[in-house]
Amino acid sequence: MADSAAAAAAAAAAAATDVAAAGSAAASAPTRTVARRKAPAAPSRRELARSGTAEPPTGVIDVDPAIESTGPLSIIAKRRIGESDMAVYPLSLGASVFGWTADGDTSFAILDRFAELGGDFIDTADSYVGGRSELLIGSWMRERGNRDRVVVATKVGRHQENPGLGSVSIVRAVEASLERLKTDHIDLLYFHDDDPETPLEDSLATAEWLIESGKVRYLAASNFSADRLIEARILASAGLPKFVAIQNQYNLMHRTEFESAPRIVAAAQGLAVMPYYALANGFLTGKYRTKSDLTAGARSVRASAYVNRRGQRVLAVLDRIAAEHRVAPASIALAWLLAKRTIVAPVASASRPDQVDALMAAAGIRLTRSQMLDLDRVSE
Predict the structure, then answer these.
(1) What is the pLDDT of residue 13?
(2) What whole-number percentage of the chain has pLDDT above 70?
(3) pTM summary value
(4) Counted domains in the chain
(5) What's 54's DSSP letter?
């Protein structure tokens, strides 16, 4: 374990100093005739502190040092997505349920409640319900006339008609997503998974063309290893697009995978982290407390892995802290994530409009240091 941690730290240090190696990388990179978009200026220390995004440190500070023990926040500050010019409410509405466990009317009602409470960041993918999720979001934005007030993130790489991250697949997938979303641009495009069969340079070059053509604003990565994120940053030093955000599974029940090398690299590169399964497939809402609460549904099956002694201990602490703040356990689980330095907007979904309130409330909760320590200890 020590050797692994040392290797991860060394990798992060290499990522933070990749500009020094850009000369040799640029020399070997093929010449492109397309004019490059000027990279946005790096955020200042004050901007980073205000946005909740970690600047590249020599060591990772896990908990926001500004955390206080006072009451709930009356004003929710938006958080910047990495090195982009986009700032969002610190909760991303997951749309994987749209067209699946939530029908069209229910999906519209969920989106309406989300927007009513100040939400502006929606997370979907071309593979969610075969594209049905994107269709519903696109129809909602057109009917409400609010496209300019919403930041839309979608993912490509898993749709059965356009699999992988080859150039043709990416372009076709983006064009199909634009049509379903009824828009002319995607704000944040994720590579849904790494594609070892395709050189990363080729995928990034395709994304560059999409950015230059105005179809995509910024690029992000989902489920990429720390090594691949470092490789991507080295390629970006040669002029290819940078990832500004990443998605990894991260919650109170699933910590080790992200809290090793990915967290170090994210902090070193200034990447915004959008944890998915932020509520552990609904387990952290308190819905599944015993085996008798489980059903045959896909989400229930995944949550069943946490219905054990450790899970019960985590729920007990969540319940206590939730009672202290007079909120739902889900709000505390999300507030714990938001207190972490690299987290910008956890991704959480709702199957009913009334569930949205607990998700949105998380951004206004200030956990005390002792509460954070209790949650850290019980979820180890």
Answers:
(1) 43
(2) 81
(3) 0.81
(4) 1
(5) P
